[in-house]
Structure formats: C-alpha cells, structure tokens
Amino acid sequence: MKKVLFFLLISFMGFSQQNFFNVPSSDMTKAKHVFFQQQLNFISAGFQSSTTFCYGLGKNYEIGINVIGVTVDYAASLQDNAGTFMVVNGQKKWDVSPAFSAALGGQIGLSSLAEGGTYAYSNGVYKLENTKLVGGLYYTSDAYFGPESRGIGTSGVLGKFGFQAGIERNLWKEKLLFQADFISGKHSLGEVVIGGAYFISKNLVLSAGYQKPTMGSKSQDAVVFEITYIP
Question: CA 103 to CA 122: how far, in whole Å?
C-alpha cells in the first residue's frame, strides 16, 4: 500500500520545467511565450495527472506553476494520499559555449494538506550532433521523496542529494526522438524511463515511455504519456 501511495504521490514531478520524462531537459521557454505540458502515469491501482505551465522571461529565465499529483484511484485503496501539490517553478540557464550550457532550477510549494515541498537541481547540458546529454545533481525535501537516500549519502544533509541524467537523440527528420532519463535513490522516484517523442506539428509533441524502478527504490513499473505544447 505504501509503495503504491508514494508512487502516485510524486510519480509525475514534471520537475517544474521542460523535461525528458522526469528529469529537466533545461530547454528554456521563449521570452513572452507559454510552455504547457500534461503528463499521465498509469499503474494497476490507478493513474496520476499533473500539469506544468512555464512563462519565458527572456535572457534564459523562466517561471511557472505546477499542479502535481491529481490522483485517480481505481480501488479506493489510497486513503492516506497526502494530496495535490501546488508549486511555483523557476529556472536560469547560462550558455557557456555552442556545445555546453549550465542551468539551475527548482520548485517550491504546498500540498492540499499544507505540507511544504522543495526540489532544486543543477544541470550540465551537452549538445552533440543529433544528440543531447544532460546530467547533474538534485536536492529534495522529504515531503516530495520521503526519507530514503537520494543516492549520494545515506543520512543527514548528503542523504537528500542525488544524481539525475537524461539523453535525447534525433532518429528521423527531427520529428521522431529517442528519450530516456534516470533519477538515483531508493525513494519512490528512483527509476529509469525509456521511450520517445513524436512532433505532431511544429509546436505539439506526443511522448510515451516505460518506467522501471532502480537501486531497490520504492518506484513501480508504469506507462507514461505526455502531451506538450512548445512555443
């Protein structure tokens, strides 16, 4: 029961900004434009719907809001569900060279039961021919991920830091992309998601992937779908 509860609570973080599936891709929303993404995660006990909006401020800044963890429970078995999170997100990116950039971002907010949550990250972004690689560190409060180790340490401050990584590769005419991402830790988001994205149009993207737990985490196998509007 706990395993299912924690999964449905935070299986879609959206992680605030544009992402592969769970890990931020550190793509920035254009100035004075709005980015939108809707994601659904399905397991046998139900599914979770979460929504992301971002607004581009220019000069590689963006801000936005997330509605995280709107849960549909097939079996009415999640009586301890901690509620939906409403959070504010933000991100800043620095272009170091044509091939490399760095980003800082995160989100902070409250659940419908007045529990606070914080997520912060730093990413390095490498752009090669037809391939994009992202990797970095993240920090989260226990309200989001629970008390389990994130992957760097087992307790104390270090226990709240972990690794995240993602890859995207163009497969066909910049319309069909391979995507995968990974988050370290034994919490309910310690997992890898492998899938892809297809550009239905210039601005509309459909993504799908399969999620597998890693490192003995509390995550679960799941099917992930996203519909994204990119300005």
Answer: 6
